[in-house]
Amino acid sequence: MALAAARRLLLHAGSRLGRREAVDGARRFANKRVLVETEGPAVMKLRNPPVNSLSLECLTEFTISLEKLENDKSIRGVILTSECPGIFSAGLDLLEMYGRNPAHYAEYWKNVQELWLRLYTSNMILVSAINGASPAGGCLLALCCDYRVMADNPKYTIGLNESLLGIVAPFWFKDMYVNTIGHREAERALQLGTLFSPAEALKVGVVDEVVPEDQVHSKARSVMTKWLAIPDHSRQLTKNMMRKATADNLIKQREADIQNFTSFISKDSIQKSLHMYLEKLKQKKG
Ligand SMILES: CC/C=C/C=C/CC(=O)SCCNC(=O)CCNC(=O)[C@H](O)C(C)(C)COP(=O)(O)OP(=O)(O)OC[C@H]1O[C@@H](n2cnc3c(N)ncnc32)[C@H](O)[C@@H]1OP(=O)(O)O
């Protein structure tokens, strides 16, 4: 209930902000963690420093921004990128999955599902400009897109690394990985929790193109121009034909998936693994 109220408030505040900024000339709207520019090809920028982790608030704002774009019939495509230097997204927020209660885990997971369904089944053209590290849920965001352009910086890695955290990628993450890179590569990468360098990601098909870092946005825009030249109705029907079965697989078992996640993440052994992983992240800093 509280979340629904927050969501209504955000939508309202978001539309007021949108109107105000439009008067200033730039066509854009924003909430705290997501900035959307609608001048030229729409660009959605995640800005949840330090690492664009997908906290509950960030997920909610992301979903609301997407909803607003979907409702604007003049917007046919969106470039998804990040405003945090060197980070596309660190994925799901570990602090939403650690040390909380089952009701919180269930609420969080419902919102993860909702964002995924909205992104994956979007009628809009989605191009990701991956300008930084993109592990786990960050990779998931990119995989939802129709085309992925990644910056050629060996420090940036991408992949579903859940097994390194002692957790298991949900079946719908896995389905999308299989759809993108094939069963054998997905099986190996999921078991090993592989984080691919840009060159490896290109080779295996996790991304479609790798370009010098300063060209990632211009390349994403030129890709968008090419995709925008395709008639919407045929492209959308084709996208739906390709993605429907994967989305339906989750839709038909959303509640069971929430229950599974909640009981899995609540286990002492899993909480211990997450604790160790968080400690490792802290120690890395020295
Ligand atoms: C059934 C189970 C299903 C669950 C599915 C889960 C999918 C997921 O997405 S789980 C999340 C997986 N994400 C990761 O493994 C990424 C972990 N982070 C990193 O590897 C690095 O932080 C980095 C993204 C490569 C960025 O490195 P760097 O720039 O050096 O920053 P750090 O110093 O490491 O981090 C800064 C600060 O952010 C905290 N943090 C990092 N990632 C997360 C996260 N995903 N959630 C929450 N917080 C995160 C990190 O601990 C640091 O915090 P401090 O308090 O400043 O120490």
Q: How would you describe this structure to a colleague?
A:
With 286 residues, the chain is of the alpha/beta class. The protein is built from eleven helices and ten strands. It has helices spanning 2-23, 56-71, 102-120, 137-144, 171-181, 183-192, 198-204, 216-228, 232-251, 254-266, 268-284, and strands spanning 28-30, 34-37, 42-46, 77-82, 86-87, 125-130, 132-135, 147-151, 158-159, 209-211. Bound molecules: ligand LTDHYY67. Ligand LTDHYY67 binds at residues 50-51, 53, 87, 90-95, 133, 135-137, 161-162, 165, 167-168, 170, 261, 264-265, 281-282, 284-285. It is an enzyme of class 5 (isomerase). Belongs to the enoyl-CoA hydratase/isomerase family. One of its GO terms (molecular function) is delta(3)-delta(2)-enoyl-CoA isomerase activity. Its EC number is 5.3.3.8.
The SSE string, one letter per element, is HEEEHEEHEEHEEHHHEHHHH
Catalogue the unreliable spans.
11-25
| CATH architectural category | Alpha-Beta Complex
Count helical runs.
11
**Principal-axes shape call:** globular
Count of distinct strands: 10
Tally of distinct domains: 1
Radius of gyration: 18 Å
Q: Which percent band covers the strand fraction?
A: 5-15%
Largest sheet: 7 strands, mixed
Give the N-terminus to C-terminus distance in angstroms.
42 Å
Q: What proportion of the residues is helical, as a percent range? A: 40-55%
Strand order of the largest sheet: 1-2-3-4-6-8-10
Mean pLDDT: 92
Which ligands appear in the coordinates?
A: ligand LTDHYY67
Instruction: Give the CATH superfamily.
Output: 2-enoyl-CoA Hydratase, Chain A, domain 1
Give me the secondary-structure category.
alpha/beta
Q: CATH topology, which one?
A: 2-enoyl-CoA Hydratase, Chain A, domain 1
Look at the structure and give the CATH class: Alpha Beta
The oligomeric state of the chains shown is single chain
